[in-house]
Amino acid sequence: MRELHTKLKSLFPVGDLTEQRSDLGFVTVPQEHLRAVLVHLRDREGFTHLVLLTAVDWLEAGQFQLTYLLSNRSAGKDLGVRVMLARDGATMQSIHDVWPTAATYQRELREMFGIDFPGSPRLHEEFILEGWNDIPPYRRDFDTLKYAQENYSERPGRVTHDPAAHMKQKLNSGGN
Amino acid sequence: MKDELKIRVVKGPDGVEFEVEPLKDYYCEAAPTVMPAAYIKVVEDLFNWARSESIWILGFGTGCGAIEMRPLMTPRFDAYRFGVQWRPTPRQANLFVISGYLSTKTLKRAIRSYEQMQNPKYVIGLGSCTINGGMYWDSYNTIKRLDDYLPVDLYIAGCMPRPEALLAGFQDMKKLIRAGKAEGANLYAENFEWYKANQKRVIHDWDMPDYNW
Known about the structure:
The complex is a heterodimer.
Chain A: H1 2-11, E1 17-21, E2 24-28, H2 34-43, E3 49-58, E4 63-72, E5 77-86, H3 102-112, H4 144-151, H5 163-172
Parallel strand pairs in A: 2-5
Antiparallel strand pairs in A: 1-2, 3-4, 4-5
Chain B: E1 8-11, E2 17-20, H1 41-52, E3 55-58, E4 84-87, E5 95-99, H2 104-116, E6 122-126, H3 128-132, E7 154-156, H4 163-178, H5 184-190, H6 192-202
Parallel strand pairs in B: 3-4, 5-6, 6-7
Antiparallel strand pairs in B: 1-2
């Protein structure tokens, strides 16, 4: 993993390596170099498989983090490539021509996080949600409880207990 | 609205052009009607006894509770000994078991399936999700009260209820039917406007006829 990171660092302005395990590491890459890094990893380093493409919403920092998890099957190694995006008007270049499967992930990210991937096929078709009329639900400023209370009627009589306090009271009142 | 749902002109095989409106139900535009009971009580009782002994469930698993129905089809629990069996299409079924949480997307399909079932028909809500939302009480796409959208005759509580609970529920359902108290389909017909308004409040892209069977 370290060798690979040194090699990458000599070619691209990549960030430090976070080694989760001996066979799993993460590097951060500037947005404009992502495509070159991915193509290099796929064609030169044997990371032929895109395992997943997912996003994290760093609301406080005003950023989205995209993680492209790649796998090198023959070496048994996984590498996550991270990209930080500005949260406002988040747009990222599409990689559907590097891995066709990425188009599906990009559709999902467009719907659930509102990240735009211009040029990605069928991007604006509904993926999971139907007739969604609010901000994308996986964004952290989306209040799912408030949305549920406004849209779905509740049956009266539902009580919620704090588990710790409830069990304490229950055990104490049991006479033990 | 999706392109295939817009009004369009189609050319038939005989060369005649005609207009097609996909959202219009060409076979039945009439709202459901209340089914009156038989003219003598003894006949209605006979009907109800017969109905209670042939419960045919629609094989439509809406949530995780569907997994609890599989064991009922096996020799260990064997629901068939109670006259309960599963059918692949709504036309052949008279009991709709809403098995667990119901997302708004699935609700749309559940409504269509329910309306396509023929009278007499019954609905069982399975698991706490159908009663008050269960663990999906704060979910952005899951309904919390099934009886706002479909007429529920019986709830089976639990998360998830085990197959034994389902068997007990089916036996209770039989008692309800035999006593003539399983009037969900008539309730749906009587309060059709109310049910439709509730359904349309949560299904934002309503792209089907209002009533379709």
